[in-house]
Amino acid sequence: MKRMVCLILGFSLICLLVSSSAGTIGLTCTVAEIRNESEAQLDITLKDLENADFELGDIVTVKFGDFEKDMPLLNGYYVDPGEYQVIAHPMRTYIELCINNKNFAETTGIRAGDTVTLTMKEKGGSRKLQELNNLVYTDNREDYASDEIFVNFRAVIPGKLYRSASPINYRLKRTAIADRLMQETGIKTVLNMADSEEEVTGYIAAESFASPYYGELYSSGSVLAIRMPFYYGSDEFAEGIVKGFTFLSEHEPPYLIHCNEGKDRTGFAAMLLEMMTGFSPEEIIADYMLSYMNFYGTETGTEQYDYIAEKNIMRMICTVAEKERGDDLSDVDWKAAAGKYLTMHGMTAEAIETLKAKLK
User: Fold this and answer.
1) Any idea which fold 21-128 has?
2) What's this model's pTM, rounded to 2 decimal places?
3) DSSP per residue over 144-181, as a string?
4) For 69-114, what is each residue's pLDDT tens digit?
């Protein structure tokens, strides 16, 4: 009986570890499910990949059916929008195949149950991309200099507009402090860019809910929850921004805008509001990057700081200004560019002027 078990285990290992014609060891696995109706979740973990001599920063060849593509193996969504990658997300158990800000399953036709083979293309071929983007923060308050830094809470326009990590998603372990800072600041209206109405009511009903002030604002109709996509270049995102800003124009400041970390979706919304109210590009970039300084300790003047600013906030700015990366931005009328973006996606000129007046 023991011999039979050993034979079965040995055969299973042979099925998992495969050799390409070039002699490269790889992995054969199965699509366990299509996650969020988009990413293909495999039935292997990062540990399985490491046991097969893969590591973060490698480029691997992914094959299934007639599909074959070289993709970087990364632990975050670090590639440009529309590019492919294999992701070993630190908050998820299993490896996933995805296209940044696009539907992988819809694009490739992959389905649950499909067999996938991963083989090495280039050892360390994306190591620099992994190192520049590999940013980790802790959930320990003691690791941060203040409550405000811990929850990424700050004024964009003092007395009028604030931004923060989520004061309601208790899985992020920052809600109680964020809720207290909201109350102390006198926040009257909230734009939640991360959660649906159903998710908000679920948080409020949970035993671990620790955001009573947020709950009061929600009950009074002063919170708008829009589960917005991450990709700011999509029509869905722009329509969500218009809906959110119109809501703000109909309610009173001080306003709080947040997503989960208060970094990217919040960063785009803050950028637009800053453009509308006369901030310079330098001020907008500095405010955006402060989130990376708060969470990850990213330092000004470093390669990492410049890389993140160019990759993220500069792209956002160019999207609104209708410019390409590297274009001269000195002649851009930022207020006009923000207004055009909003009106083009459905916000009325009257609502824009009302919101600007409330932010003065």
Assistant:
1) Elongation Factor Tu (Ef-tu); domain 3 (2.40.30)
2) 0.82
3) SSSHHHHTT-EEEETTTEEEES-SS-GGGS-HHHHHHH
4) 999 999 988 998 889 999 998 888 999 999 988 899 999 999 999 9
